[in-house]
Amino acid sequence: MTRLFALVLMPAFFLGATFLPCLTDGALAQSGTARPILPLQLEEQIPVPEVSGRLDHFTADAKRRRLSFSALGNNTVEVIDTFAGKVIHTIRDLSAPQGVLYVAEFDQLCVANAVGGKVSVFAGANYAFLQNIDFGEDPDNLRDDPVSKKVLVGYGQETGGIGRIDPATGERVGSDLKTGGHPESFQLDARGERLFVNVPDAGNVVEAFGLKSGAMEKWTLGGLRQNYAMAVDSESHRLFMVTRKHPKLVVLDTRTGKEITRLRVAGECDDLFFDRSRKRIYVIGAEGFVSVVQQASPEHYVLLPDVPSTIGAKTGFFYEQRDRMYVGVPAKGHDPAQVWAYEAED
């Protein structure tokens, strides 16, 4: 599907609940119009009332079937019951929350606050406040390292770095990794031996850290800039990232930093995910669609039809256990913020 065709489809999705339920399979058959089978099918639109401003990153509590996300412009974290399809809790009085991470082993929810420089920790069961951990300037993305059992925190601006929290004690531990600029998205390989960090402030590079050796390599991106979102396929030794200038998916070999390919994808992306069961990459872009790329092999990648979303939606979460992609839709006019749930299709 071309992007022109995707844009033609978009108004139908904007009508949302008033349009899609009215077109039953029977009505479609009578009209002779077949509903297109896209890689992601919109199944549900979950309203998030009283939330304004930008929606940032997401995390999931698989045991309780909950999805949490940072409402950065609202200074809250919203918790959704994915089976009930509604907001069940709001954590208030935060300070521009960005990254959010549920740590299953310790049943904790960690929230990185851009203003004030603290990572706030809450109980996973009832969201009772536990403590604040100081990180200095602009803590942002959070990742769980299941090998070391630590939470990794990207923070800072001109002197950015990756720090560590021990969830067992609630303390910062070890030496921080210095990134030479604000670390955007970062990912660990499956064995916890290497860490890959997007650092656009340090010359639009990827920094690859050996966590045991302490060695660091810098990989350039051939003139592309603003490398923010990142995902990894450890099994195939592939690193995926999306740049904003120009909007490209770049695939690198995690062992050497060699570029495998680059493809034009949705612009202004802030989140992308690798669907391991289907070998697909989902790129959420604020241009109004989700780009889907099929990994035919570790060396070959094919663009699948674009999936319409809405202008401004650029964050979300691929909930592997539910086989669903959730996309954060900011409030517009009289319409509240929403989370759109897409079913992944084979």
Short description:
With about 350 residues, this protein is mostly beta strands.
Describe the structure.
By secondary structure, the protein is mainly β. The protein has one domain: YVTN repeat-like/Quinoprotein amine dehydrogenase (Methylamine Dehydrogenase, Chain H, 7 Propeller). 5% of the residues lie in helices and 51% in strands. The protein contains two helices and 29 strands. Strands 10, 11, 12, 13 and 14 form a five-stranded antiparallel β-sheet that branches. Strands 1-29-28-27 form a four-stranded antiparallel β-sheet, with no helix packed on it. The longest helix is centred in the N-terminal third of the chain and has 12 residues. It is globular and about 45 Å long.
Q: What layout of secondary structure does this protein have?
A:
Blueprint: H1 3-14, H2 25-31, E1 40-48, E2 58-61, E3 66-71, E4 76-81, E5 86-91, E6 97-103, E7 108-113, E8 118-123, E9 129-134, E10 142-145, E11 150-155, E12 161-166, E13 171-172, E14 177-178, E15 186-188, E16 194-199, E17 205-210, E18 216-220, E19 225-233, E20 238-245, E21 247-253, E22 259-264, E23 269-275, E24 280-285, E25 289-297, E26 300-308, E27 316-319, E28 324-329, E29 337-344
Antiparallel strand pairs: 1-29, 2-3, 3-4, 4-5, 6-7, 7-8, 8-9, 10-11, 11-12, 12-13, 12-14, 15-16, 16-17, 17-18, 19-20, 20-21, 21-22, 23-24, 24-25, 25-26, 27-28, 28-29
